[in-house]
Amino acid sequence: MRMQLKTILSLSIFLSAAFAVNAQTDKNSIDDKQEESRKKVKSSEEYQETEVNFLLNYYEQDGDHSPVTGGQGTEELTNVAPSFVVHIPMDSLSSLDLNFGIDIYSSASTDNIDYFDTHKTSASSKDARAHINASYSHQLMNSGNAYSVLAGFSQEYDVSSYHAGGSYTFNSKDQNRSLSLSGVYMSDKWDLLYPTELRGNSNETLKDDTRTTLTFGVTYSQVINKRLQALFSAEMVSQSGLLSTPFHRVFFDDAFSFAANKTELASRSHIERLDDSRIKIPVSLRVNYYLSDFIRLKTFYRYYSDSWGISAHTASLELPMMVSPSFIVSPFVRYHTQTAADDFYEFGQASSSSEFYTSDYDLSDFNSVKVGVGFQYSPVMGISNFKSPLRKNKVAQLKSIGLRTAYYDRSDGLNAWLVSLDFGFTF
To answer: Which residue in 372, 217, 228, 369 sits closest to 299, CA to CA?
Structure first.
């Protein structure tokens, strides 16, 4: 689960920038109604304001299928992630976006890397990950097309990562259609931390300590009419190198008879082994429909397939509703189902004759549901004003406050709570 959490945190930060597509919304939408009101009270100079969002995310999960202890044991984890997202207009055509923050987590699961050590002192029971990402975007005056370049870096005690990429977007003259092509390169370097009982065992080592990820994407968006918009996206992700996690254990089919004896069980643990190459292909469709001037229906569907044998379907619905000109409520639901990887085995079911094996339930056959609600308070005149710390004789503004909370439940027993706060400022 720790690897999945790191991957989500690493990829989600910069892929959203790489695959962003310009789309013109109709003037009857919720977003446009608020924006039109703001335009009436803003001068042209204020369009060059720097926008800063402070986000505070809290995530808490529990379960009983930890891959650190071979598919059995606690998956308890908490993660607190404060971050800043800064949008700086360079001129009327160019902008710079920065995203930086820290993820602080406590994990009972990874604390069990030293499960069989009577003096357990796992360094990974608590950890912090720092990250910074930057992207530069520019719109071409003559064609109306746009391009962006991005780069970033993250560091924690056993993994360092960096990425770089860019995108180019072709926009129609009326800005109602756009086609975006993007590519991202990512490299992760690991300090190979093995389970305590396997350290120094030359038969239980991995040959790679780096992972390379290449992502290529194409996105097409179109405003179909005043109420209907659609976006289609397809990606190909190629990974190579270290794709297993060094401290994930696997127990073969001879382990059951020793399950009650910790000493004997320790002698039968093995590290997770997975193919050193993987191809992922997700294809998705987003459709937004404005049911009225005050209610929007947002739908999403994705099909996923990879070379490890997993296929998955994901669908979600969200219903943003304008309760007042300043307040929006957005209930949502998301459903996911997937098949298991070819090399997934439950505790004590893997065979020593297999080339690859894992007991990571993120690669198992499961269904999941996430339900939640979001709130956004964004008055036309802002929430409060104060002296800008960035510009002399300028007034800064707390423009909006957002709250989003969700409950996640998975069919293998894992469940989680997520809470996000978003404070929007202009300087």
So the answer is: 228
